[in-house]
Specification:
Layout: E1 5-12, H1 22-33, E2 38-40, E3 45-48, E4 61-69, H2 72-86, E5 96-101, H3 107-118, H4 123-132, E6 136-139, H5 145-154, E7 161-168, H6 181-191, E8 195-196, E9 199-200, E10 205-206, E11 216-222, H7 225-234, E12 241-249, E13 271-284, E14 290-296, E15 299-305, H8 312-316, E16 323-331, E17 340-350, E18 354-358, E19 370-371, E20 378-379, E21 386-387, E22 391-395, E23 403-404, E24 437-439
Parallel strand pairs: 3-12, 15-17
Antiparallel strand pairs: 1-4, 1-5, 2-4, 3-4, 5-6, 7-11, 7-12, 8-11, 9-10, 12-24, 13-14, 13-16, 14-15, 16-17, 17-23, 18-22, 19-20, 20-21
């Protein structure tokens, strides 16, 4: 019999745009492991990494979990079989699986994970890391999934949320999801502020159901297990679901925007924030998208605010001289376009006074004076009163010094919603006997 050990398992890139889901694979693995003689030491982790990676599928999420077992070899072999069976390799998935036996996670794992949150890390870097740290790995295809697998194990939570993912029965995979919109709206109202981003009231749009062929029926994001379980009882659907799994996640934490851009880190696909002065007045282009530039320590950076975010009108209200802190992802330069920072938020630090010069107004007649000629002043054509100088008018600004976030339906998985501004969730009590995992009755 093997000695009891703590085993960390991480995997990623098991899905493709045409099907399957890394969290569904976790659901299948957990279903198997719950029947074995072992102990889960925490919630399964769903870690979202840099959302600007060009080859990502959907939310760029990797999964890991931590267990105590006496039979690590048996568990590893079984999980490898699950990876082989449930990865959509025929449609482009490149799954990576990592095992690490230790009570603690070394700092180099955490450093790797932090870089994966905002940079582009390729598979060769992950393979070198695995070799240097003597990790037991398994992969198919080119092994790109090793990046997320290592990162999910190494991720260190400062803040976290929870997500309850409910899965479909195989007979319903690929079918249109049908759920009562009214029940989702009611659920959000009753569980507020302990769930978030479930329903967009402005657009009357359900936000918990994906649209692809993957096995997820809905995902409810929140702060507490009790609120998530309560939410499932409020939702109404005629489809019989298979079960659910609750993940501990960095969704809604804004983790990918903790990095401050510098000259050396303003690279294609990187995520981060930067503070600068508006150096070109915003222009609206085809499609309703708004573009402007900011100057940061002498360097110009083009910024884009896309219409679906709902904050393009805010961007359009900016003028040269305004001071901003903005965050988002760098779009690679092309032959026709420079590199662009696609904005995920606008935080207005300071607003410049918007002033303009006009011909003076006659105090007696209340009418605009006419110019008498170059350097000859101005005169009222009605009463003859004169003035030497133009009048300076201050135009009221339509925007304020504050943080502007996209509409909820335009949020990315990692975007910190308004309800979580200033909130840090440090602890969620884990109970291996609780309903964090459930297979529903037939």
């Amino acid at each position: 019999m093997d000695k009891s050990c703590i085993l960390h398992v991480g995997f990623d890139d098991t899905d493709s745009p045409k099907g399957m889901c890394t969290t569904f694979l976790a659901y299948k693995i957990v279903d198997y492991l719950k029947k074995q003689d072992l102990e889960f030491l925490d919630f399964p982790r769903l870690i979202r990494f840099n959302p600007n990676i060009p080859w990502k599928t959907r939310g760029n999420g990797a999964v890991s979990f931590k267990i105590r077992t006496k039979y690590p070899s048996k568990i590893k072999n079984k999980i490898k079989n699950f990876i082989s069976k449930y990865s959509d390799t025929q449609n482009g998935a490149n799954p990576g699986l990592v095992f690490y036996e230790n009570n603690t996670i070394p700092s180099q794992f955490t450093e790797f994970s932090e870089l994966a949150l905002w940079q582009l890390i390729n598979r060769s870097q992950a393979k070198k890391f695995a070799s240097k740290n003597n990790l037991e790995i398994f992969y198919k295809g080119n092994g790109q999934g090793l990046v997320g697998a290592i990162g999910a194990i190494g991720y260190h939570f400062v803040d976290h949320t929870l997500e309850l993912l409910s899965y479909r029965r195989p007979s319903n995979f690929g079918q249109k999801r049908k759920i009562s919109s009214k029940s989702v709206k009611t659920m959000q109202e009753r569980t507020y502020p302990y769930t978030f981003n479930s329903f967009d009231k402005k657009k009357s749009r359900v936000l918990i159901t994906p649209h692809g062929p993957d096995p997820v029926f809905y995902g409810i994001r929140g702060e507490k297990v009790e609120s998530l379980l309560m939410a499932t009882k409020i939702l109404e659907t005629k489809e019989r679901l298979a079960g659910h799994l609750i993940f501990k996640s960095n969704q809604g934490t804004g983790d990918h925007l903790k990095n401050t851009f510098t000259k050396t880190t303003l690279k294609p696909y990187a995520s981060g924030v930067i503070t600068g002065i508006v150096s070109s007045n915003p222009k609206i282009e085809k499609g309703g998208h708004v573009f402007f530039s900011i100057n940061c320590n002498g360097d110009e950076l083009r910024c884009a605010v896309y219409k679906p975010t709902g904050i393009s009108s805010i961007a359009l209200g900016l003028i040269e001289g305004d001071k901003l802190c903005v965050g988002g992802g760098i779009r690679k330069a092309s032959k026709t376009h420079p590199r662009i920072l696609n904005l995920e938020f606008i935080d207005i630090v300071d607003l410049k006074k918007n002033v303009m010069e006009t011909n003076p107004i006659c105090r007696r007649c209340k009418k605009s004076m006419k110019s008498k000629g170059q350097n000859q002043g101005y005169q009222c054509v009605k009463c003859g009163k004169t003035s030497k100088n133009k009048t300076i008018l201050e135009i009221p600004r339509k925007i304020n010094k504050q943080l502007y976030l996209p509409e909820v339906s335009a949020h990315r998985h990692l975007s910190r919603p308004l309800t979580r501004i200033g909130k840090i969730n440090k602890r969620s009590k884990f109970d291996d006997s609780a309903s964090w995992f459930s297979i529903y009755e037939n």
